[in-house]
Design a protein that fits this description.
By secondary structure, the chain is an alpha/beta fold. The chain has a domain of 97 residues: 3-Layer(aba) Sandwich (Cytidine Deaminase, domain 2), CATH 3.40.140. The chain is 31% helix and 37% strand. It contains 4 helices and 7 strands. A 7-stranded mixed β-barrel has the order 1-3-2-4-5-6-7, surrounded by 4 helices. The longest helix is centred in the middle third of the chain and has 15 residues. It comes from Nocardioides mangrovicus. GO terms for molecular function: metal ion binding; metallopeptidase activity. This is JAB domain-containing protein. Keywords: Hydrolase, Metal-binding, Metalloprotease, Protease, Zinc.
Length: 157
């Protein structure tokens, strides 16, 4: 079931970072964490942090909670930015396929443990990005808006 609507904005750096990580890991999957904040109901994704999976294959990547938490803690302490926090996950498929049923199920499951919406980005081998969101266990209708739209909104406020 798809519930509420959720807007997401990707900083221009994010797609480039995902593509670079996907290319480095070919022919295996890779993935990691999305960092950003929420601004007026819009999830702003500012950074993508890679969390390698030594057991990754051409069809799977698993996020180790231990490695992810260590990487997140280290990155956030170095960034020292008051708005930045965990907003979701990403991973790259080394084939032109989008989010799997398992990907969608995991997103909904993970969103049950937080009050905020979570984002999942799946990077396809053709560089298409699938951007999905969920909140409290339910998928949301996701609208991708440009980073420039966020900046224009801030300048007119």
């Amino acid at each position: 079931m798809i519930g509420r609507r959720q807007r997401v904005s990707l900083h221009p750096y994010v797609p480039r970072a995902l593509t670079a990580a996907a290319r480095r890991s070919e022919p295996k999957e890779t993935g990691g964490l999305l960092l950003g904040w929420t601004d007026g109901g819009i999830i702003v994704v500012r950074h993508a942090l890679e969390v390698p999976d030594p057991s990754a294959t051409q069809t799977s990547w698993t996020r180790s909670e231990t490695r992810a938490n260590e990487a997140l803690t280290k990155w956030l302490s170095e960034a020292a930015h008051p708005w930045l926090g965990y907003v979701g996950d990403w991973h790259a498929h080394p084939a032109p396929v989008g989010a799997s049923t398992t990907d969608k199920r995991c997103l909904k499951k993970d969103s049950r443990v937080t009050q905020k919406s979570l984002v999942l980005i799946v990077h396809r081998s053709d560089e298409t990005l699938d951007v999905l969101t969920a909140q409290r266990g339910s998928a949301a209708r996701t609208t991708l808006i440009t980073y420039e739209e966020i900046n224009q909104k801030d300048q007119t406020s």
